[in-house]
Amino acid sequence: MNTYPRPTRRQFVKLFAFGVASSVLSGRGLHEMIIGEAHAADSANGLLTLKLSTFTALQSANSSIRLALNSFNPTAGFATPYYPILVSRSTGNQFYALSAQCTHAGCVVPTFGSPCPCHGSMYNIDGTVAFGPAPSALTSYPITYDGDNLLTIQVPGLGYSITGAPIETAQGSRFQLTFPTQSGLSYEILFQENIGSAGSAVSFANSSDGTANLTAIAGTGGNLTVYVPRSTAKGFYTVNVKVTQA
Ligand code: FES
Q1: 130 CB under 6 A from ligand 1?
Q2: pLDDT at position 243, please?
Q3: Low pLDDT (below 50) residues in the chain
Q4: pLDDT of the residue at 195
Q5: CA 65 to ligand 1 center in whole angstroms
Q6: Residues 34 and 242 sit within 8 Å (Cβ to Cβ)
Q7: What's the gap in Å between 119 CA and the centre of ligand 1?
Q8: Which candidate, 24, 63, 84, 136, has a CA 20 to 30 Å from the CA of 18?
Q9: In this predicted structure, what is the pLDDT of residue 218?
Q10: Where are the domains of the chain?
Q11: Does the C-beta of 100 come closer than 6 Å to ligand 1?
Q12: Ligand 1 atom 1: the closest Cα is on which residue?
């Protein structure tokens, strides 16, 4: 466990913007711009997978990053639908995944080493309280490290089930995917030709005969149906929630 002295007033928030425009301008595929992917593991839980090599801050011990599935206000006591997730690295390749919801009054806790912006609570790298007024540790999520480059975090409440079927449209063969969504989250579709091969983001339409030029779609709180042009006869589609570093 690492402890810190009382905080100074300094706070820093690192913002990292993602978007279709930036990926197009840089000539890189959208998938390469995505730092993390969250997908439904089952109807209750989601799995957030991260490549360690993507994050300079996680290359050494006693550091952390903050990931957001939706926008949030650091000093408001609610972040809907999800609070950001702090991913921290301690010594001995020990990793922690913690909800950034301060246990005092619900403000959003910054990365390890900085105090809560509302009343100055400080947490240790494992989420326990270094000093209050926070009354208890940050909520932790199960996290596994494959010993190489992959972190997998189980996020409760992010699960959803997907139904899909190939259909014929005026625009040719498409794959129709229907899934429940949450407001505030942004969804993208990944395609893998084989299980085990790297997935890549694909464009899609929001109507069966519409132009397939969408790369992300905002959740509505209800079911969404999207239509992906089929370039091959076989493969796997994944509906992912976009994740940003914030
Ligand atoms: S909400 Fe974090 S210290 Fe009060």
Answers
A1: no
A2: 82
A3: 1-37
A4: 58
A5: 19
A6: yes
A7: 5
A8: 63
A9: 94
A10: 20-156, 163-241
A11: no
A12: 105
| Ligand 1 pocket check for 143: Cβ under 6 Å | no
pLDDT the model gives residue 14:
25
Residue 213 tokens read as 């030029």
Surface-to-core class of residue 177, CB atoms within 10 Å of its CB (0-12 exposed, 13-18 middle, 19+ buried): buried
Q: Phi and psi dihedrals of 166, rounded to 5?
A: -75, 140
* Cβ-based neighbour number of residue 1 at 10 Å: 10
Architecture of 20-156 per CATH?
3-layer Sandwich (2.102)
For residue 6, the CA-to-ligand 1 centroid distance in Å is 14
Tell me the one-letter amino acid at 236. F
pLDDT at 34: 36
- In this prediction, residue 6 carries a pLDDT of 37
Q: Could you give the CA distance from residue 240 to residue 47 in angstroms, rounded to a whole number?
A: 10
pLDDT at 8: 33
Interval 27-70: pLDDT, tens: 223 333 333 445 555 556 777 878 888 888 888 899 999 988 88
Give the burial string for 26-50 (b: 16+ CB within 10 Å, else e). eeeebbebbbbbbbbbeeeebbbeb
Q: Both tokens of residue 36?
A: 């993390």
Check pocket membership of 133 for ligand 1, CB cut-off 6 A: yes
Bridge partners (DSSP) listed for residue 244: 68
